[in-house]
Amino acid sequence: MPKKVFTGTVIKDSMDKTITVAVSMLVQHPLYKKTTKKTSKLKAHDENNECKVGDEVTIIESRPYSKTKKWVVYKKNVDDSTDVMKAPQGAKSESAKLEGVSIDDAKATTKDETSLSGVEQGEVNDNESKEQVQ
User: Fold this and answer.
1) Predicted pLDDT at 96
2) Domain limits at 67?
3) Contact by Cβ (8 Å): 49, 17
4) Which of 2, 7, 30, 85 is buried most deeply by CB count within 10 Å?
């Protein structure tokens, strides 16, 4: 029989070589067919104490390590988009792109773009259209 694999969030890491993982899953009611969200807290073995609270981890079923610990950390899921400190070499930040442009200039360009968009397309104000109808 294949081993079960779940992905969840670490909610507790205060124990030595053990973490608690919250695994959320959608479960359908057998009679009413309503889908509800069920969250299970599972204890998993973390050999090197690498996982911290808030980390996304994948856990896999294993032999029982204790009465309640029957899972082991398979891998720690890393999301590079949330890491602000890492940027590719040669990339410029937002402040470097706007360097030399004053705030007034930036406001003026956005103001001109928004005010001219309706005029160029030939749209009529609501007040003018009401006057024409009456």
Assistant:
1) 47
2) 5-78
3) yes
4) 7
Q: Give CA separation, 130 vs 52, 120, 121, 134, in Å.
A: 63, 21, 19, 6
What are the C-alpha distances in Å from 46 to residues 20, 36, 120? 10, 30, 63
Domain assignment present for 59: yes
The answer to whether residues 41 and 10 touch, using CB atoms and an 8 Å cutoff, is: no
Pairing of strands 18-28, 35-45: antiparallel
> Does residue 95 belong to any structural domain of this protein?
no
Instruction: Tell me what pLDDT residue 47 has.
Output: 93
Q: Please check whether residue 14 lies inside any domain of the structure.
A: yes
Q: Are 73 and 59 in contact (CB under 8 A)?
A: yes
Which residue(s) pair with 131 in the sheet? none
Query: Angle 37-43-44 (CA atoms, 0-180°, nearest 5)?
Result: 115
Query: Phi and psi of 48, rounded to 5°?
Result: -105, 10
Q: Please identify which residue in the block is written with the tokens 């109808």.
A: 133
C-beta neighbour count of 18 within 10 angstroms:
18
User: pTM of the full predicted structure?
Assistant: 0.57
Q: Which two tokens stand for residue 29?
A: 């009611």
The enclosing domain of 35 has a CATH number of: 2.40.50.140
Within a domain: 12:
yes
